[in-house]
TrEMBL record:
<dbReference type="InterPro" id="IPR020846">
    <property type="entry name" value="MFS_dom"/>
</dbReference>
<feature type="transmembrane region" description="Helical">
    <location>
        <begin position="81"/>
        <end position="101"/>
    </location>
</feature>
<dbReference type="InterPro" id="IPR053200">
    <property type="entry name" value="YfmO-like"/>
</dbReference>
<feature type="transmembrane region" description="Helical">
    <location>
        <begin position="54"/>
        <end position="74"/>
    </location>
</feature>
<feature type="transmembrane region" description="Helical">
    <location>
        <begin position="366"/>
        <end position="383"/>
    </location>
</feature>
<feature type="transmembrane region" description="Helical">
    <location>
        <begin position="245"/>
        <end position="268"/>
    </location>
</feature>
<protein>
    <submittedName>
        <fullName>MFS transporter</fullName>
    </submittedName>
</protein>
<feature type="transmembrane region" description="Helical">
    <location>
        <begin position="20"/>
        <end position="42"/>
    </location>
</feature>
<feature type="transmembrane region" description="Helical">
    <location>
        <begin position="340"/>
        <end position="360"/>
    </location>
</feature>
<keyword id="KW-0472">Membrane</keyword>
<keyword id="KW-1133">Transmembrane helix</keyword>
<feature type="transmembrane region" description="Helical">
    <location>
        <begin position="212"/>
        <end position="233"/>
    </location>
</feature>
<feature type="transmembrane region" description="Helical">
    <location>
        <begin position="113"/>
        <end position="133"/>
    </location>
</feature>
<dbReference type="Pfam" id="PF07690">
    <property type="entry name" value="MFS_1"/>
</dbReference>
<keyword id="KW-0812">Transmembrane</keyword>
<dbReference type="InterPro" id="IPR036259">
    <property type="entry name" value="MFS_trans_sf"/>
</dbReference>
<feature type="transmembrane region" description="Helical">
    <location>
        <begin position="170"/>
        <end position="191"/>
    </location>
</feature>
Amino acid sequence: MIAKPAAGSIWRQPAQVWAVAFACVVAFMGIGLVDPILPAIAASLEADPAQTELLFTSYLLVTGAAMLITSWVSSRIGAKATLLAGLALIVVFALLCALSGSVDAIIGFRAGWGLGNALFISTALATIVGAASGGSEAAIILYEAALGIGIAVGPLLGGVLGTISWRGPFFGVVVLMAIAFIAVSIMVRGGKSERRAPMPLSAPFRALRTPALAILAVAALFYNMGFFVLLAFSPFPLGYNAMGIGLTFFGWGVALAIASVWLAPILLHRMGRSAVMLTILPLLAIDLIVAGLLVASAMALVICIVVGGVLLGIMNTVLTEAVMESTNHPRAVASSAYSAVRFIGGAIAPPIAALLWHAFNATVPYLFAAAAVLIATVTIALGRRVLTGIETHQADAEEEAEAVLLGDAG
């Protein structure tokens, strides 16, 4: 668990730490920002739910694929240039989303947004830790707080702006990301001194040959199906307006952030990583089953969504920490390889859920999600002998921050 710095030291950070932390808040707002306006987009652009869910699919597929090359890119052009490229792409494609007149166009522009997000989130941790002054732990706590604020506030801001128009949240991202771009360009130092040693393009693919990492990646693929059915499909059966959906997923985001930063370390001090995963995954499957059975009750579904946020927050952190210990490859390489595989699950689950809803009823998508989570549980259980290495090391402050970053990225 991250040690607390001396009183007040969290505020004594260079301007560039604050600039990147602000950009992190905005970037992580983008995860839940679209949630409250999914029904409005479907209604305004005459799209069915399956088409609308492709907003998540295009975003996550490109984010996952780009994760395979972000280390290669940043090791050659430097962290600041990579951050700015990511922020600029998000500004451009969020603006194009806001100006779009069809759901197909938004789907395409969300793919470009995913590329920008991959470049930014893969570089932000190294930048903020490298820029910290007077002890990195205070900066990491600030960093985790920024992520938590972004995850929680994103759906709420989406709900507020979505009551004006479905285009509102996209314009909101444009303004905030433009401010972040200016702040990073002015305050973050660049130059050759901050560049990493060039990394081969094949590094993430080689990392996936490690049996333990491969098992965790496959488990995460199915786990992410459950994650994104809960996140991306639930706005439709909830039946709330944009503000109601925003408030619901604000609660989800707060629960997820608290669980990621505080509950997961507490559990890891008492149980091994495999034991935590084999405990939380079945609980998540039960939560999804209950959500499906009680889907006709909006209040019951809200409770299941918030409870799911707690379980997802714990799993995100524990899974990503386990990935760090599963291979001798650099953490950035292992995490990007693992993320590329798990994002596939997040990409395919939302449209499948919408199709199952159309073919059957609103209960079936949650049962599908629960089945996927149980497959992830079985994968971890069958591979537990191979995963013994993930129990041997207690993550330090930077590793926990990376677990929160990469786990909550999707």
